[in-house]
Every structure is written in C-alpha cells, then in structure tokens.
Write a structure and sequence with these properties.
The complex is a heterodimer of chains A (about 450) and B (about 160).
Chain A (H helix, E strand, L loop, with lengths): L1 E5 L3 H12 L3 E6 L2 H10 L3 E4 L5 H6 L7 E4 L4 H14 L3 E5 L3 H10 L8 E3 L1 H14 L3 E7 L4 E7 L24 E7 L2 E3 L12 E7 L3 H8 L8 E5 L3 H11 L4 E6 L2 H10 L4 E4 L5 H6 L7 E4 L4 H13 L4 E5 L5 H5 L6 E3 L1 H14 L3 E7 L4 E6 L21 E8 L2 E4 L11 E7 L3 H7 L7
Parallel strand pairs in A: 1-2, 1-4, 2-3, 4-5, 5-6, 12-13, 12-15, 13-14, 15-16, 16-17
Antiparallel strand pairs in A: 7-8, 8-11, 9-10, 9-11, 18-19, 19-22, 20-21, 20-22
Chain B lengths: L15 E2 L7 H14 L6 H14 L3 E3 L2 E2 L2 E4 L6 E11 L9 E10 L4 H13 L3 H9 L3 H14 L1
Parallel strand pairs in B: 1-5, 3-6, 4-6
Antiparallel strand pairs in B: 2-3, 5-6
The chains are: A alpha/beta (about 450), B alpha/beta (about 160).
C-alpha cells in the first residue's frame, strides 16, 4: 500500500516505523525541520519537510495515488483539513486524530463523511478506556482486548505471595477447567521468555496472559487471592481523559474523586459530572491528597497534561497510602524509569492511539494490534483467508516464525485456547503473539498464495 | 498427567445438603458456611461468606446449565473442602447463561494452592458437564442417593 502519514510526532513516527516494517511504501510529512531530520535518520521511509495542509506538499507526497492518508499532526483542525484535501485529490481512505471533545461531538452528530474522514482516533478516549479496563482487572499492568472483547490480554506482575509462584505451566492447565487461561509470554529480568509447559512462573515475573472474558475474574484470584474490586479511586486532572474516566468509573465504583488544580475548570467539570466528588487543589500537596482520602484509595490515577506532575503526585500518593498508582505520560521513554519509581501502571495515550491506527490501516486480515514495546513484540488478531497456509495443518506441524505463538481462536461463539492439536479454520479470529519483525511472515501464513 | 483427581477424595456423604433453603446468593453461601462451621472445619462463617461474596463480585461462578461452583481461598486451611448443595427452588446467581442455579458445588481451598485448586474445579466442572448426571442430581432424593450419583459419575469419567 501507498501511505501518507502527516505529522512525525510520537504517533506519526511510531506508525511510520511499524508500517514500513510491514513492507508498505510510507511517505511521512513533517513541517518542523529538526523532527523531520530525526525521522529520516531513524526510519526507512520517505520524509517530506513541509506543512501537510499545503496542497503542493500533499502533491509531492503523491496524494492522488495514496491508498491511505493518516493525519496525526498536533492540531485537530489541520488534521481534518488534510483529510478534506486528500479526499479532493482522490486518496482512497483517510484517518484523522481529533482530541477536542466538542469537535468529536460534532463528528459523531453529523457523521465523519461530512469531513471526508473514514476513521477518527482520539488518544484521550483511548487512554480513558484502557485505564477503566485496568481498574476492572485489579492487579493488571497492561491491557488489550481482542475478538470484540471476547478474548483479553492482560499483564500481571507476580509477587512472592501469589499462588502462581513456582507453579509449572502444565500444572496450571486442564481442559476441564471452567475458566481457562494461557500464559503466552513472560518478561523476566529484561528478557522475553516464551514459556513451555515445564517452565515455572517466578517472583517478579511480568506474565502476559490470554483469557476468554469469563476467565478474567478467576485468574485475578490466582495472581492475588485477596483481590477486590476497587471501592474508591482518585483521579488527578480534569482533562478529557480524566473527565471521561470519572464518568465511566462512577457507574461501577462507589467513590470517585476528581482532583483539579484549576479552579474554573474544576467548577465547570463538577457541573457536568454526577456522583463524582470534584476537589480543587494541587496534587503535589500531601494535605490536599489527604483531604481527598488518599489513605483509603484503591487507586490514584494521574492523567493531567503535565507528565512531571503526574509522576510526582503518583509517587506521593503511593507514599500516603494509595494501593495502586496509574499515570499517563506522553514521553515513551518514561516507561523505562517507572520501574524504579514504584508506579504500577503507565499508560501512553499516543502509543495506544498508534495501536488503534495500526488496526485501521492494516485492516482486513490484521484487525487488532497491541504493541508491547518493552518486549519488542506485538499481539495481532488475524483472520485466515480460505486456503491460507495456516489452515492446512494442525499447529504442531506448522512452521511458525521464531519467537511467536498462536494463542487463542474465536470459533463461532466459543473461545479456544490453542494447543498443538488445534487446527485453525478460515474466517476465525486468531490471536497471535510475535516479535515485531515477523509480522509480515504472519501475514503470509494467513493469506492465500497469490503467485503459484 | 491429565485429570486424576476424584471428587469423592474430597466429598463425603455428610457434606451433601439435599435441600438448601436459601433463595438468594448470600443466603445460599451462608448455609454452606454454617454447614462447615457446625462440622468444625471452619471457625468463622462470616469470614468465609465474605470471601465467597468477594469472588462473586469479581464475576459469577455460575457456569451455566443450572450449575455454580462458588469457591474461595481461606487462610489457615490445611486441605481442600468440598460441599454439594441443591436448591430445587432455583437461585438467581448471575450465571453466564442468565439461568437460575440449582446445583452448587462449594470449594474452599488453602490460600497458597493453585494447582490443586484448579484441578478440583476442573474435576467438578467435568462431572457436571454430563446432562444425565445433572438430571440425576436434580431427581435423587436423599444424601446417600446423591452421593451415589456423584461417585458413579466420578468412576465413569
């Protein structure tokens, strides 16, 4: 496919990397000289320096022949303008990043077609949804859903007192167990372990588990027998993410507190949110956190626009008694220092948004993606075409790319966790865990041969 | 390898309650807890009920076809405890198939058990997969007859 990505920020840069690795022809437009330079040094894509909202620049990128244009600059209006221009030139599909809540309302009300857009990605909403999922799976550290929410991927850190410690994987599987699960990867001392039956789970492992949705509750008790649904959460930051998350959680969690340092904003949001206590104050002040009832909080979630304050307030909240801390950050490299800071979950809205766009761009056979950047791995949802290689033999006699496994399958209304005897059939939703660099090989396994 | 565990290794005829009186989840769980307290194997009924309810709050243990396997891990317990109870009147248990629950296998496990806990749940679930067994468990009258149904199914599978 011929693709044009407008904007080389975190989303555009990462997207360009993944898609060029997939073998697509990628044109990346960026108007900031320095960032454009960095992109052309680090990526194997064509970088065009200039504003993507300028017709001549779009023409230079070959907009008339583009299969898809992805507008992910940091300005919503620019992104929508790019899509309209690209449509006029004849680009086949267009995706825009739109963060502003009122713009998103308008897009929903009148339909995306008015704006010549085929898909909208809102990183704030994507982040709010991910955090809500983390809250509904106490103890989880990373979350992604597949097969329309029927198959879940969850990551957990294993503590010394977990019943899973020192358990062999074979002893944790039984075909009659009503709440089955499959450990597909373990992150141990910075390495990825693709576990086999005789391997054991160890203290301090981060395990990645595939679960049919009804298995989630049971698995939580295997990680931590004392697990409880959260009763009280404190959210810092009345951002789009914070407001949406507060509204969402207020339906299921008894007490939701939203802390915001800007008085006017706090008052506005308080008027819009029912059953949420909105408090005005600084999250980095211990007294304010105590006023929010931090010692009884099951979670402190910092989602303001300021990464530093998010970080500092979360560390303080943990010290003052919050059981779990969650922060959003837009700095991808933060992920690496979090381990040292006693923060439980880090959500990067832009990386999650990248995953969502990858789903839309890859479309068809690869419908869902979760990139596990620490592991340099991806989890894909693929649908085999009729007659594709993967459907011809049971899994144990298929030659899969190194460092990959086929984990789960949705067959009709049933979710099957794969074993060696499993044979994949055309049209099923198949969940695959693999290294980033073997994604194209998997695409081949799932497609019909075009040349004989 | 495989499922070698038997339910009758953990279930005695005395741990069968042919007529549970409760009509709500909490009432039924309390009857089970009381049973274990009166037979001296659990000391605190409230604590056990709380643990069982906490598990139901995460997600129902109703596995469909009128069957539920309420369970939890109890600190200080030495070995797995299993109690079978039947509520012919039906109990709303938020099962996945939205149907009422009539047959209950309660399982209480030590806190650190993972493998044995899993195998026991698997074994119970396997036995109850048989529609004939479920029907027989609904129709049999007393404790002894119910125990016979379970042990015969245990042998057969």
């Amino acid at each position: 496919m011929k693709l044009i990505i407008c904007g080389a920020g975190v989303i555009g840069f990462n997207l360009a990397g993944y898609l060029s690795e997939d073998g697509h022809e990628v044109n990346l437009i960026e108007h900031r000289q320095k960032i454009a330079m960095k992109a052309s040094e680090k990526l194997d894509v064509r970088v065009i320096t200039g504003s993507a909202a300028e017709p001549s620049i779009l023409e230079e990128a070959g907009v008339a022949e583009a299969d898809m244009v992805v507008a992910v600059t940091n300005a919503d209006i620019t992104n929508l303008a790019i899509c309209s221009l690209a449509a006029a030139y004849g680009a086949k599909k267009r995706i825009a990043r739109v963060r502003d809540a009122s713009l998103n309302d308008v897009l929903e009300k009148f339909g995306m077609a008015h704006f010549h857009v085929d898909g909208i990605i809102n990183p704030d909403m994507v982040a709010a949804q991910a955090i809500a999922k983390v809250m509904m799976a106490p103890g989880s550290r990373e979350v992604a859903d597949f097969a329309d929410g029927e198959i879940l991927l969850r990551a957990f850190d294993i503590q010394e007192d977990s019943p899973l410690c020192d358990m062999k994987l074979t002893d944790l599987s039984d075909r009659d167990f009503p709440w089955p699960f499959l450990v597909i990867a373990i992150s141990r001392d910075g390495d990825v372990v693709m576990p086999r039956g005789e391997d054991t789970i160890q203290t301090d492992d981060r395990i990645y588990v595939l679960l049919p949705e009804p298995s989630l509750a049971e698995f939580l008790t295997f990680v931590n027998p004392g697990v409880k649904m959260p009763r009280k959460v404190i959210i810092y930051g009345a951002t789009n993410t914070g407001e949406n998350l507060a509204r969402d959680l207020a339906g299921t969690i008894g007490e939701v507190v939203l802390l915001e340092e800007n008085r006017a904003l706090a008052e506005r949001v308080a008027g819009r949110l029912k059953s949420v206590t909105v408090i005005h104050g600084q999250p980095s002040e211990a007294d304010i956190l105590r006023e929010c009832g931090i010692e009884a909080a099951d979670a402190f979630i910092a989602v303001s626009g300021n990464d530093h304050v998010n970080l500092v307030s979360a560390v303080l909240a943990k010290k003052l008694g919050a059981k779990t801390t969650v922060i959003t950050t837009n700095e991808p490299d933060y992920v690496f220092i979090i381990g040292a800071l006693d923060i439980d979950v880090v959500i990067n809205p832009r990386l999650l948004a990248t995953d969502q766009i990858l789903r839309l761009v890859r479309g068809g056979r690869i419908s869902t993606v979760a990139t596990l950047s620490e592991l340099k791995a991806e989890v894909l949802e693929l649908i085999p075409e009729p007659g594709s290689p993967v459907t011809r033999k049971p899994l144990h006699s298929l030659k899969l790319p190194k460092g990959s496994i086929i984990g789960a399958i949705r067959r009709g209304s049933e979710v099957i966790l794969a074993s060696g005897e499993t044979q994949v059939m055309e049209g099923e939703q198949v969940i695959v865990f693999c290294r980033e660099d073997v994604v194209p090989q998997f695409e081949k396994l799932f497609s019909r041969k075009r040349v004989l | 390898m495989g499922t070698t565990m038997k339910i009758i290794d953990f279930l005695s005829p005395n741990d069968i309650i042919p007529r549970l009186a409760g009509t709500t989840m909490e009432e039924v769980l309390r009857e089970f807890a009381q049973h274990l307290v009166s037979s001296g194997r659990v000391s605190n009924a409230d604590q056990l009920v709380k643990i069982l309810i906490e598990r139901e709050k995460l997600g129902s243990t109703g596995i469909g076809n009128g069957v539920a396997i309420p369970h939890g891990r109890l600190p200080g317990l030495k070995d797995i405890l299993v109690v079978f109870g039947r509520a012919r009147q039906g109990v709303e248990f938020h099962a996945h198939d939205q149907k009422q629950v009539y047959l209950f296998f309660l399982l209480v496990a030590p806190e650190d058990s993972a493998g044995k806990h899993l195998k026991a749940l698997a074994r119970i679930s396997r036995i109850l997969k048989s529609p004939d067994c479920r029907r027989a468990l609904m129709e049999s009258d007393d404790r002894e007859a119910l125990f016979r149904v379970v042990s015969e199914e245990d042998e057969r599978q």
